[in-house]
Amino acid sequence: MTARQALRAALALTGAVALTGTGCSADVPHRGHGSAAPGASAAASGAVPSPGAPGIGDPLMPLDGNGGYTVRRYTLDLDWRAPGTPFPAGTTISATATQALSRFDLDFAGNALHRVTVDGAPAAAVREGDELVVTPARPIPRGGTFTVRVTYTADPTQRRQRGDAIREYGWVPTPDGTLVCAQPDGAKMVFPVNDHPSLRAPVTFRITTPPGLSAVANGRLVDRVRRPGGRVRWTYDSEEPIAAQLIQMAIGKFTFAESAGPHGLPVRDVVPDGLVNDTEADRSLTPRHLAWLEERLGPYPFRRYGVLVGDTDLPVALETQSLSVVPKDDLLGDRVDAERNLVHELTHHWTGDSVAIRRWSDLWLSEGHARFYERLYSAEHGGVSMEDAMRAAYEQHDQWRHDDGAPAEPTEPTLFKVMRYDGSALVLYALREKVGDDTFNRIERAWVTRYRGRAAGTRDFVALASEVAGEDLTPFLRPWLYGPDTPPMPGHPDWQVDPVED
């Protein structure tokens, strides 16, 4: 076992580096180490420089994220050429050291590395698996701000596979370009990053396209400049801090369909030219979906929304922040099914995007809420009744626990199995049956309000639910979230769980 493998094992066992809220530290004073007197060293700050941890200690993915610093902004430069063709790329990372750093890691995989600088000076860089270990020319003091520039050749054929609902992630090809599906930890195939769902920072995207192609990314288009040879550079600002798994960059022959949602919210759909008319009926329902969710969860938490129609065989839609990607087949079939998918990804903008998960085992809070409100909306608009859907989930719950782990006890391979979807929506349904509609609705509104723009986990949810309900709900929720057996469903003594099959 190498020293790094030993450290990984230790992180997985102990979570040695604390998981902390978001990765955005806009309130940290900008005290650059370059402002110190000439010849000053990190040791002068009173701390002996040491390496930042190669991960933040999430037990399921211990090397995701990095210790020793917080990211203040990413700036991505992509010089796109053609489908399946590697192209020049660069990433600039503005960060603040949270310890005196002798070196630090970035999550980075799948691209040819060219050069790394820290504050303009060449830095040593070594690749160890999916870790890029950077040693600056001189240590960085605690509290010091620094800028990392990484230039590389991006490879848009880089993808990885999973055995759950995600199946394939990373760069996703389209007939004339690409889109990105980074969930769960595929952003590192696109750019060097601090890749964990609890870590967020604003992103500037600068994407140059050949003549006839458009680019889109999360947030707002701030600039479009013609370059030599008819190429165009598109600049987008994420407007809000964003987790790496929620980034979106797409290139293709697009139509931009602009409309407005409740309260004048800008809605921008991005649609391959040949799919505009065939998807319009389903896409036009977004304002209705927004209004329905705002009645239950409060104001939409971002500055704009829209749907990116994926001209791909992508198996799942994805809640990329402010611009959900939805495969074309999801919008070319049954209306009820299309609305389920659209409401699911939109719900994530309250739970999963705005309220981020603190660790991967909290994924049930993100996917369970999205599935709950998807089912609830569908039941009110021509789909299966909520009670029938939840009874079917209840019958299979012991089997799912056996196969995939309890809702809050996934393993890395079972993260996106059915337990995190219908199985976790069932936990919320049980809570509603326990406390009643009014109290449940107050819990939900409090959840997305109190933790807006922050990361939160299972303990936070149980504590908040108990506070709002005026009773300790831990004895009720713990059996639902952990362990091998499904508890009785309140109000439904006749519901039975099917026997487990090995």
Automatic annotation (TrEMBL):
Residues 34-50 have a biased composition (Low complexity). Belongs to the peptidase M1 family. The lineage of its organism: Bacteria, Bacillati, Actinomycetota, Actinomycetes, Kitasatosporales. It comes from Streptomyces fuscichromogenes. It is an enzyme of class 3 (hydrolase). This is Aminopeptidase N. Its cofactor is Zn(2+). It comes from the Bacteria. Residues 1-26 form the signal peptide. It catalyses: Release of an N-terminal amino acid, Xaa-|-Yaa- from a peptide, amide or arylamide. Xaa is preferably Ala, but may be most amino acids including Pro (slow action). When a terminal hydrophobic residue is followed by a prolyl residue, the two may be released as an intact Xaa-Pro dipeptide. Keywords: Hydrolase, Metal-binding, Metalloprotease, Protease, Signal, Zinc. The keyword Protease applies. Its EC number is 3.4.11.2.
